[in-house]
Amino acid sequence: MDQRERALAEAFDGQAARFERAPVQTDPVALGRVVEFARLQPDSRVLDAGCGPGLVAEALLAAGHRVHGVDLAGEMVRRARERCARFGDRARFEQGSVSVLALQEPFDAAVSRFVVHHAPDPVAFIRAKAERVRPGGVVLASDHVTDPDGPAARWHQDIERARDRTHERNLTPGELADAFGRAGLSDVQLAEDGFDLDFDEWFDRGTPALPKAEVRARVLAGGARGFDVRARPDGGITIRCIRVLVRGVR
Ligand SMILES: C[S@@+](CC[C@H](N)C(=O)[O-])C[C@H]1O[C@@H](n2cnc3c(N)ncnc32)[C@H](O)[C@@H]1O
Known about the structure:
By secondary structure, the chain is an alpha/beta fold. Helix content is about 40%, strand content about 25%. It has helices at about 5-20, 25, 30-40, 55-60, 75-85, 120-130, 150-165, 175-180, 200-205, 210-220, and strands spanning about 45-50, 65-70, 90-95, 105-115, 135-145, 185-200, 225-230, 235-250. The site of S-adenosylmethionine has 21 residues, from helix 1, helix 4 and strand 2.
């Protein structure tokens, strides 16, 4: 692990408990969409790259697949093992970086959810997944995305970084699909769906660089495709976000 990855691991160790309970992460419909969009052969061997507390892994295991999860954060790996213990040796988890994961028998598929925006080089991250999949295997990434308009994307980016010091950059939907092409994948397909974030819930499980009141004021001052802000009558804020699913074949 390099210095940046150690900082990422530390941040996710700290937010693991809240992350594991967050409505956006635990939503069974959204987890089902990941499994459905992947269209894997029965009993596939799947790499879950940046597995977090094992929510995606659990959905894949329940669908009859085998999962090898990898995550930088030790606390995330501990929680993933606990969550997926009932699947016995069909579920394996290890702490480490996807980019240096030892290449043994290639996987049938490699998935990741909400990880690309932490990667300093998204194409290298997708390629690292693709290299660990057999020819004809599936690579899937799901992530929240940003606006193709430059100023709107920069406003969104500044807010994400103010709320989470480990945030690198949200891609646009097109950039994520292009990253698959640049990583050498074919038959690239993309689907979008929306989800709602509650500002307080979201901010409180982050690793902020700025005080909450300041970030709140910034959020209320703008809007972007993928980060559409709605002030509620109860004083709260709902942010309408866009999550994309991209699937490619090695
Ligand atoms: C936002 S969480 C998503 C967790 C999980 N995929 C989910 O959707 O529930 C991002 C996770 O990716 C992990 N991560 C980021 N970059 C990674 C890398 N290069 N190798 C392994 N894990 C990574 C972080 O430690 C963190 O637990």
